[in-house]
Design goal:
The protein is of the alpha/beta class. The chain is 40% helix and 20% strand.
């Protein structure tokens, strides 16, 4: 099995709390004895996870230039899910579905940022097509800052078919497109909903767009024509959160 390196105190703590079985070993910088690290060490020991002291240089090599904060965990890859998992999740929800769909987002940094925002907004799952989507690797997990272990990442074979299935469940599909007239702040984002974000530049694919119940845009006042997909995702998700809290 190919292992991944998860680094940073918060990311490792979250993995210990939510998915400790992934962690095979934790490497801690020699001489690091502050309270945060001590609590992490005690948590790992309580879970019978091996901890080993190594040099900072060792950690820097494993983190490949990332901010390791004195700790790196050797982990099994984060589990992704499929259509069957999505059906089971939706069958067992006791609140209106609130989903995020990423169509063509291939950068692990953007995936990690979207997962983090999705977790903060209360999204129950992030859905993406198996082809041309970012992998849920160590980079995405680090940027997600714990959300990768908390929010299911569901990879589907046919995104258009999945969207149709969501619609048959009564889930309203809202896509984002710069050329539409409907402002995201004017749209109805309450009730069962899936927000669909396309890749930067290209946007959503044609078949994905055809399976949207409505298209919304973020009003842009300056010279920039588009936003980073993770920033746009945050704006749209939290407008939905605002509306849903009022509804």
């Amino acid at each position: 099995m190919k292992y991944e390196y998860l680094f940073g105190i918060h990311a490792v703590n979250t993995a210990l709390k939510r998915d400790a079985q992934r962690i095979q070993k934790i490497l801690i910088a020699k001489g690091r004895h502050d309270d945060r690290m001590q609590r992490l060490y005690e948590t790992a020991m309580g879970l019978k996870i091996q901890c080993e002291q190594v040099t900072k240089r060792d950690l820097e090599e494993l983190a490949d230039g990332g901010s390791h904060q004195g700790v790196v965990a050797l982990c099994k890859p984060i589990q992704t899910h499929n259509e069957k998992f999505l059906d089971q999740l939706l069958d067992n929800l006791d609140v209106p579905p609130f989903l995020l769909v990423l169509d063509g987002v291939t950068d692990p940094h953007n995936l990690g940022a979207c997962l983090r925002t999705a977790d903060a907004a209360g999204v129950q799952a992030v859905i993406a097509p198996k082809d041309k989507s970012a992998p849920l690797n160590a980079t995405a997990a680090k940027v997600a800052c714990g959300a990768a272990e908390a929010v299911p990442y569901i990879l589907v074979t046919n995104l258009a078919r999945t969207l149709k299935s969501l619609q048959e469940r009564g889930i309203w599909t809202t896509g984002t497109a710069g050329e539409t007239d409907l402002n995201v702040y004017q749209a109805n984002l309450t009730g069962p909903m899936a927000l669909i974000m396309g890749a930067e530049g290209q946007g959503m694919r044609r078949l994905t767009r055809e399976h949207c119940d409505q298209l919304v845009k973020i009003p842009m006042a300056g010279e920039v024509s588009s936003l980073n997909v993770s920033v746009a995702t945050g704006i749209c998700l939290f407008e939905a959160v605002r509306q849903r809290s009022v509804d």
